[in-house]
Structure formats: C-alpha cells, structure tokens
Amino acid sequence: MLNVLAGFYQLIGSLGLSIILLTILIRTILIPVMLPSMKTMQKQRELQPELDKLKKKYKHDKKKQAEAQMELFKQHGLNPASGCLTQIVMIIVLIALYGVIRKFTGGADINEINTHLYFDFLSLDPAVQIPTRFLWLDLTKPDPYFILATLSGLFQLLQSKMTQPYVEEGEKAAQKTPDKKDDIAYNIQEQMLYTMPIMNFIIGVTLPAGVVLYIVTTTIFSLVQTYFVSGLGGLKPWLKKAGIYRNLAWIKKRS
C-alpha cells in the first residue's frame, strides 16, 4: 500500500488525490471479500416478514424465539455469522491503509519511507518536502473549519441508516410495546445509528486531515457499494421524505 501511494504521488503530484485513489483502489479490490456479508444482509431483509411472525408468535418466550429464528435461517441456507471473517479481514486491511496514510501525513522521515519502497523510481527526494496542501486543507493537521469532520459524520450517518434494513419494521414493533424496552435489536440499532457518526466527527476533529480524507472516501465508497448490492435499507424513508427516492431508483435501474 505504501508503494502504491508513493506511485500515485509520483504520477500526479498531489498527496490528497493520491490518498483518494489509493482508498478507492483498495476498496475495489476488497469487493469480492465484502460481497458475502452484504448478500447475507440482503437475505435477512427478505426473511424479515417471517422473522416478524416468529417474533409475534413467541413474544413471551425469547429462547424459543431465538431457536425458531435460527431454524428459519438454516432452512434458507443462511448463516448470520458468515460475515464475521469478512469483517475481520476488512478491518485488518483498513488498519494497514490507515497506517500507510499516517506515515505520509504524520511527519514521518522521508528517508524512513524510502526504505520501504521496492523500486528506485518510487523513492522520494529527502531534500524536497512533500506538499501537504489539498484544497483548503493541510493534510498533516486537523481541518480548521471542521468541514471534513462534518462530512465524515454525515456520510457515516447515511451509511449506518442504509445498513439497518429492519429499523422501520423494528420501530413499528417497538411502538406496539408499552415500554418499548423489550425490542433489544431495535434499541441497539438506534444507538449505533447515532454513535458511529458522532465518533467519526470526533475523530475528524482530532486526526490529521489526510487520515480523515481516507475515512470520508471509504465511507462514500461503502454507501455506493451497499446501494447497488442491497438497496437503500433503512435510508429509504428519509429519501422519500426528501423527494429524491425516485431519482435514485431510476439510476439503479439504468445501471
């Protein structure tokens, strides 16, 4: 990854664009790794009406409810844990990518970076400081206007909503319950929906802009990938209210 980033930088001369291109390249390579967990999510969405029936049938017996759900998954050849290994691989790769970008934007010595490059033509000139300006940003410092941090939180909110296909159904089920406390899955989804965007914003305020640029790029990539693989999920009600749902549906159909 370090060599590819150095190659992009030598080719286009912009560290910001190089970070964006590297992030897109790595995420594209990881598409086959991510597809199994995304397809599992889509199958779970298709089974949601059956899951709702089981939830209603065994509403007073949580153990029986869980057993019936697992039996339903088994009948349809669905393993809810099948995406765990995929997520682990994804996290490892992203940590490595984060470390690479951190080397370029965290003030690492150029000679030290050069020791990790495989080819001489990729080597950086130690006498020349790498330009770290990109748009309004200094990639080695946090965004002073919090624009990147805000975008990071916003896109993560949309991503979290999109990957929660059961939020709307869960909300209806929770509303039928007087204290709304027995729907554990719904409550967890609602907490995660806002926790991750807040964390992204805090990270965006504190970390160098080069690292946050990578986070924003990978989140946008995830949004697009999720949309074309499994649809809008829980984001659909929001887009309908905003009046842009039909346009997105038309784009997906044309694709």
From TrEMBL:
GO annotation terms (biological process): protein insertion into membrane; protein transport
The Membrane insertase YidC/Oxa/ALB C-terminal domain, residue ranges: 16-229
Subcellular location as annotated: Cell membrane; Membrane
GO terms for cellular component: plasma membrane
Family matches, as CDD domains: 5TM_YidC_Alb3
Spans traversing the lipid bilayer: 12-35, 78-101, 201-224
GO molecular function, one term: membrane insertase activity
Keyword Methyltransferase: no
Keyword field contains Transmembrane helix: yes
Matches recorded under InterPro entries: YidC/ALB3/OXA1/COX18 (IPR001708), YidC/Oxa/ALB_C (IPR028055), YidC_ALB_C (IPR047196)
Keywords: Cell membrane, Chaperone, Membrane, Protein transport, Transmembrane, Transmembrane helix, Transport
Membrane topology recorded in Swiss-Prot or TrEMBL: Multi-pass membrane protein
NCBIfam families according to UniProt: yidC_oxa1_cterm
Family of the protein in this entry: Belongs to the OXA1/ALB3/YidC family.
Protein name, UniProt field: Inner membrane protein oxaA
